[in-house]
Specification:
The chain is of the alpha/beta class. 37% of the residues lie in helices and 17% in strands. A ten-stranded mixed beta sheet has the order 1-2-3-4-6-5-7-8-9-10, with helices on both faces.
Amino acid sequence: MDDEGTGSVGAVLTTESFRIDGHDVHEHVVTAPLDHAGVVPGTVEVFAREYVRDGQRDAPRLVFFQGGPGNPANRPDVIGGWLDRALEEFRVVLLDQRGTGRSTPLDRQSLTGTPAEQARYLRHFRADAIVADAELLRAALGGDTWAALGQSYGGFCLTTYLSQAPQGLREVFVTAGLPGIATTADDVYRATYAQTAVRNAEFFARYPRDLVTAQRVADHLESTEEFLPTGERLSGRRFRTLGIALGQVSGFDALHFALEDPFTAGGRLRERFLLEVGRRLSFAPHPLYALVHESIYAQDAATNWSAERVRGEFAEFALDAPTFRFTGEHVYPWQFDEDPALVPLREAAHLLAADASLPPLYDADVLARTTVPVAAAVYVDDMFVPYAFSQATARAIRGARTFVTNEYQHDGLRMDGRRLLDVLFALARR
């Protein structure tokens, strides 16, 4: 079935629908301006997939903001976990944030022009533009207020949503995603490096042999050329970025398995090991993550490659430190020299890192006056979103309630989504 409708702001909505196992699925596309302020010409397409359970055609909508930045909404092959719970009382809209999935995906093939033009284009892929896209889609779907769920960076987007368009929201639920509303990138990375050091210690305490293995691999890469399936040489510093897995409870075992028996009898790295490492390290599936990751913390100040600078304050993460340590959710300028998916975007990334004019994303005065019910799960040991900053933001949002726990790492929604939604729904409606 194909149909078109026009929302209250005049945006044309195109929808294709199909059925799966007791659900109607509607695939919506709406065209949005590249620059919602109307200064820079151009448009992007915004895509969202809506799930409607039989018997819930008149239920309110809940829009889901995926973590990232630069990741599309999940493509569920089965309906379970948090999605199954949400569908018990909502029609669920899985939004591909602009630049991801089917929302005008951004990569080295589509990002054209000079580096300066590319950097100016990238300015329009932060949370403020994502929220404006969501409001355009909401209006095109009929204009009723909707609930919203944000995981990780999705929670950052919802904090911006509460700041710039709270009139579109009926309830807000956040998991592992309350940002510091007045923190700098340097503040964030000081906190995340400290927590990454803790997670390294926990990982190697569980798997002490992996410390020997990881150090051996790193030393080998400094003296011997090993090449990933994509053709580039694997460096020891890039190998260390596998530690992003330490931020997820499921990541411990996954990283341990990746480090199993990496060497051949002849002392070279096994092909299967290089395949696995290449799969984990390549930004080809989501280059936007690397391009805009630090800019999500930029508010009237340049980041100037904060993660690289702040790393120098932590001796344990030096390449020549006596004990091997993985890094975490950190993007470095040299990755744009080493990853083939990023090399063509290198100059634009440098310009974006030097941009001191990126506007604020949060309005403390609006957040302090909001009447939208807000409930957030805050994880004490979160490696990516610092606990102290999340707690401060929860206090800054009028009426926000938190479920504070050390039961989960950053992937709590994926691991135990049904329970988390039960807790957050009850908190928001108490």
